[in-house]
Amino acid sequence: MQSHLKQLIFIWSLVTFLFCETLQAQSSNNMQILYVGSYSNRGAGIYVYAFEGELDSQKQIQVMQNENSPSFLAIHPNKKYLYSANEGNNTLTTYSIDPSNGKLAAVQEVSSQGQGPCHVSTAPDGQFLYVSNYGDGSLAVYQLQHDGQIGNLADHIQNQGNEHQKPHMHSIIPSADGRFVYASDLGLDQIVVFRQDNNTGKLQLGEKSVISLSKGDGPRHLSLHPNGRYAYSLGELNSVVNVFEIDKDQGYLSSIQRISMLPDHYKGENSAADIHISEDGQYLYASNRGHESIVIYEINPDNGLLQLSGHVPTQGRHPRNFLIDSKGGYAIVANRDDDNIVLFERNPKNGELKYSGQQIQIPAAVFVKILELN
Fold it and tell me: Is the whole-model pTM more than 0.85?
């Protein structure tokens, strides 16, 4: 009896081990897809590549034709749909994603409800789609249907300027828990904090909802720390990063630091573009157009403050957008004016980026996004 029990335990242990090994192998072999948005003055639409840790032009899967400058992309949390903000005709396009190979199929096109849509994002639970319209300084919130299509308009907000400043909404992102939405108005030097009504999609202002930045900073994009305690705003016009502490109950922002993105000796022209935090929350990266670099900061874990680590040349002009992969092993930069995307190896221990020697030529590449297929 005891011998039989030992045999059963051995067999169960072996089956469990093999099952875990199979799951691990499947996870490591998941296909990664790279989507690249472009401007239509030279680009053809959205470029789709298989990505296995290296850039290879021979691994192009598709060029999804879009002649209206799909310059910013967002992927639904269920990984079945991709959305593009099309600056050329003030629309949003819904694409279905083929789960076997990452190919896109256009499903729907709707109005962005404004002029010059430049940023699109989804609610963490996939209920809503947010879009910021740079041209007229407006925001729109759409309901998302179960089939991924864009449904009814849930809210539309027109920011108001004055005789000296015009509104230019440049990005809109939700908090990780979906309770708050942060909109950056480059024209008014403001970040606006909204509370999200998760039933209707409407955005509600509070008493301290409008945060004013230094004149001329031009807040473009915002990155939220994984711990939910800090926010980092990229100032396009003054090439700075503004650091804020987040009120966890109300979502409000309190300024704690303002730091330059440029070396002290650099006196040339520059405009900042994109900003991201590593998944482990230890490093922040932002791109400089003019200095043509990625600036790297170490994040103090105790107070969220930034300490400059260095600058890395982007191997191309006008690095409009980039990504840091979720596992922390690499970065990919889209350089618009040199028509290339470039792969950098990343050292997770010190945050350093090193040019891999790999790049792909893509006309007017301005956005990069990675999707891991299940």
Answer: yes
